[in-house]
Amino acid sequence: MKGPMVTITLQDIIGHEPFHWRGDRAGLKDFNQTFTNLQGAATALTTNELQEFKDFLATIHFPPNPFRNFDNTLSTNLPVSGHRSMGRGILPKGAQLPNGNAFAGMTRVARPGLGQCLTCHTFPSGLSRDFPAGFGRDESELPPGPDGEHHLELMFRGRLGTLLKASQLRGLFEKTGLDFDSTASRAGFGFTHHGNADTLTRFLQSAFAISDDQETADVIAFLISMSGSDLPLAPGAFGPPSKDVPAAVGKQVTIESSTPAERVDEMLALANSPTSRVELVVRGPKDGLARGWLYVPSIGRFQSDRLAETISPEDLRALAAVGNELTYTVVPEGMGRRLSLDRDRDGFFDRDELDFQSDPSDAGSIPVRTYATISIKSNLATISWNSVSGRTYQVQFKNHLGLQTWSNLQSSITAGNATASATDDAITNFLQRFYRIEILR
């Protein structure tokens, strides 16, 4: 809280400018004075520090929504525990609202007419449109500001004529619990910019004249399920994008036998979906060694932490036994490789590194000597080795191991991917030649 006003979450804030409940801060740099004026810092952040702070904030997503189905769809029969009637419908005041249909609630929110929710909010984020602020202004889309700031429309006017930023609809379930009619409230947050609506029921029934208990429950079910993505977009409702994590992320199941498990099948189905935004990793022992696997939809198999080894879902499940349990975990798209195959992201898989005495947690420790090869064709020697993209290597040679010094073979080479190579066209002049590869940086 700042005074009586509810501040904006730091989750997925970058790209949804302007900031503050009034929308009077064009971008993050306009809050720099806060570090000295409110937090007592000796100096404000430098330009580079502000950029680092902005880059960090841009990585924060909304977490998995606990009210979504496993596949991130909306529930059609969601208990809205703690949300109670105000006595304006059939149910008496204080009675628990019935289960809500979140899909029906979304349809109600998107429907033109009474309330017109999408006048102020948009899907998928629940924020307003990326247009200039104010009413009666030119609503052609503006380009980003000098620091990439966007221009979400300011939709509300307070009693004093102040423009206010439209509240987003994501994360509302985290604020429920306050109840002016109860002496045992679980939380102290309210809704609207100044927090004066204690419950979603009061907000909906007072601000939008909804009195039907089932309709209220449906809209509440949708609002507490609103996390951003994977919503059917209503015509004209599309707004700024959302950074959020699907509901299945973080879900785990550990099996100790090859008996079919419904949740494992659901995980595989999600991993196979091109729109699920998740990946499936498995950890557990195999032949007495700790191993990792990542499901690869394009081949329908699990890639193991040994580059040359894959396994079918059925054969992997067959490894499970008491004392040899396998744990399946749904992770965000793009994180599976690091979490299961290549923890230091150096291009070499973890078990391959362990097999050849390099450290899978240190990107500077790679099994380069083990993977170097020499091929000779048409009097030309090609020296190839497994490399790390962006690292610089120097190939050296000498014609007799008794020589004290090595000579450089051509100039240094900066690798562009996981394999690098150099050629030697002078091999016909010597009976033998020895090579070594140095990592320069």
Summary, kept brief:
The chain is an alpha+beta fold.
Explain how this protein is built:
Among the domains are: 252-345, no CATH class; 368-439, Immunoglobulin-like. The chain is built from ten helices and 15 strands. It has helices at 33-37, 47-57, 102-110, 200-207, 213-224, 262-272, 313-317, 336-340, 350-355, 368-371; strands at 154-157, 163-165, 252-255, 278-286, 289-296, 301-304, 310-311, 326-332, 373-377, 380-386, 392-398, 407-408, 413-414, 419-424, 434-439.
Draw up the topology in text.
Elements: H1 33-37, H2 47-57, H3 102-110, E1 154-157, E2 163-165, H4 200-207, H5 213-224, E3 252-255, H6 262-272, E4 278-286, E5 289-296, E6 301-304, E7 310-311, H7 313-317, E8 326-332, H8 336-340, H9 350-355, H10 368-371, E9 373-377, E10 380-386, E11 392-398, E12 407-408, E13 413-414, E14 419-424, E15 434-439
Antiparallel strand pairs: 1-2, 3-8, 4-5, 4-8, 5-6, 6-7, 9-10, 10-14, 11-12, 11-13, 11-15
Helix pairs in contact: 3-5, 4-5
Number of DSSP E strands: 15
Calculate the terminal CA-CA distance, rounded to whole Å: 49 Å
Rounded mean pLDDT score: 86
Catalogue the unreliable spans.
133-137
Summarize the biggest pleated sheet.
6 strands, antiparallel
Strand order of the largest sheet: 3-8-4-5-6-7
The backbone outline, from C-alpha atoms, is elongated
Strand content: 15-25%
Assign the structural class, choosing from mainly alpha, mainly beta, alpha/beta, alpha+beta, or little secondary structure.
Answer: alpha+beta
Order of helices and strands: HHHEEHHEHEEEEHEHHHEEEEEEE
The Rg value, from CA coordinates, equals: 29 Å
The proportion of residues forming helix, as a percent range, comes to 10-25%
Please give the count of helices.
10
